[in-house]
Design brief:
The protein is 46% helix and 14% strand. It is an alpha/beta fold.
């Protein structure tokens, strides 16, 4: 399928930058980014695509400006305005951090992002609890959003993020919608994600049922959660995590992969490595990302580790109701992978929904129209949970 417009492919010929910008734009319906600000950043970036430092410089410059504005508003007691501005600053810092290689510079930007996220969420969404989920000898940072006006034990969705995302994004674009339907949300930074990776040094793992079990144990002991109606959900790379958890942790009542992962992840990583070697430094890229997420010493080890991230031999163990959604124009994970996951599921009740350009939500993880994807997921959950 060909490109669908300038706003989706903001940097023609540079898919990595276009996709990263689109992920940020996808948060616009929730009031945590502004298209005008993103457009101004992108205009400055168009002539700097051969400069690896350009991406973080431009995104972080806008973020710093907004952070200062938010600080000034907070000092005046303008808490609502400060909250809005902090959230936009946090999202821009987080987007800018994406292409900074691991190290102190990346950590410094990450700290700024999370400071702004927290300042914004506490002001705009006081219903969100900042919690710690016990995990082995450590804890995992998470956000618990309660559905308003619910006084009984309620259904709860546990969300693990994608590779480039964080719980602060998940709780906004999905948690707010679930709350409107009477469902609580636990948005969690699992191993290899968000704060857990950046500030606690915990890499990802292929056997994600371990953090999946920890997340279930946490929500099940809460007095406001119905332990018989807990759903496991992941999006983008998290589509692997949620499916893997569903295969090994049957206490979840249903599962959602809002985008399937590559059926052959190692093969995908090999293609990324080979493409990066061929292109050299022509275009600023983030080919370190998977290596960093899994804690590999080098790219070849990361490919070896990627071979363990497979659902090929375990998807048949998934017997709970399970939903797979995907975008027909997904250029990160081709839609054929969604069909492979769906076919392999052992569930008697399973659903595959592929969104076309006409539907909206046709890009990776539905970032071109998050609303249609999340609405479908929320309605499917409501229809497939036990009474």
């Amino acid at each position: 399928m060909t490109s669908r417009g300038f706003w989706i492919d903001h940097f023609p010929g540079n898919f990595l930058w276009s996709n990263a910008a689109l992920a940020c734009k996808g948060m616009a319906p929730y009031g945590v980014v502004a298209m005008d600000e993103i457009d101004r950043i992108a205009l400055r970036l168009k002539d700097r695509q051969e400069e690896p430092e350009a991406w973080p410089e431009e995104w972080c410059a806008m973020a710093a400006k907004l952070e200062n504005t938010a600080d000034a508003a907070a000092a005046k007691g303008q808490e609502r305005s400060a909250g809005n501005t902090y959230l936009r600053a946090g999202n821009y810092y987080y987007t800018g951090e994406r292409f900074i290689p691991p190290g102190e510079a990346k950590a410094a930007v990450g700290r700024k992002a999370y400071r702004c996220f927290r300042e914004g969420l506490t002001r705009r969404h006081p219903e969100i609890e900042f919690v710690e989920v016990p995990y082995l000898q450590a804890t995992l940072p998470a956000l618990f959003m309660k559905a308003p006006g619910v006084s009984v034990r309620a259904p709860t969705v546990v969300i693990f993020n994608g590779m480039d995302n964080c719980k602060e994004m998940s709780v906004i674009f999905a948690g707010l919608e679930f709350a409107k339907r009477g469902m609580h949300t636990l948005a969690i930074d699992g191993p290899g994600q968000g704060e857990t990776l950046r500030f606690r040094g915990i890499p990802s793992r292929f056997d994600y049922e371990v953090p999946g079990k920890a997340a279930y144990d946490y929500v099940a002991q809460r007095a406001d959660v119905d332990p018989a109606r807990v759903v496991i959900m992941g999006y983008s790379f998290g589509g692997y995590y949620s499916a893997r958890i569903a295969a090994f942790e049957p206490r979840y009542a249903a599962g959602v992969a809002m985008t399937a992962l590559h059926w052959d992840l190692a093969g995908w990583q090999q293609k990324i490595r080979d493409k990066a070697r061929a292109e050299g430094s022509k275009i600023a890229q983030s080919n370190f990302q998977f290596q960093w997420v899994v804690g590999a010493a080098d790219v070849d080890q990361s490919i070896e580790i990627a071979g363990r991230f497979t659902l090929r031999d375990v998807a048949h163990q998934i017997t709970m109701p399970f939903l797979v959604t995907h975008g027909a124009n997904d250029r990160v994970v081709p839609a054929e992978n969604a069909q492979k996951l769906y076919d392999a599921l052992g569930s008697a009740r399973k659903t595959l929904r592929v969104f076309t350009a006409e539907d909206g939500g046709a890009e990776h993880a539905h970032v071109d129209n998050r609303q249609v994807g999340v609405d479908f997921v929320a309605d499917w959950i409501a229809a497939n949970l036990p009474a």
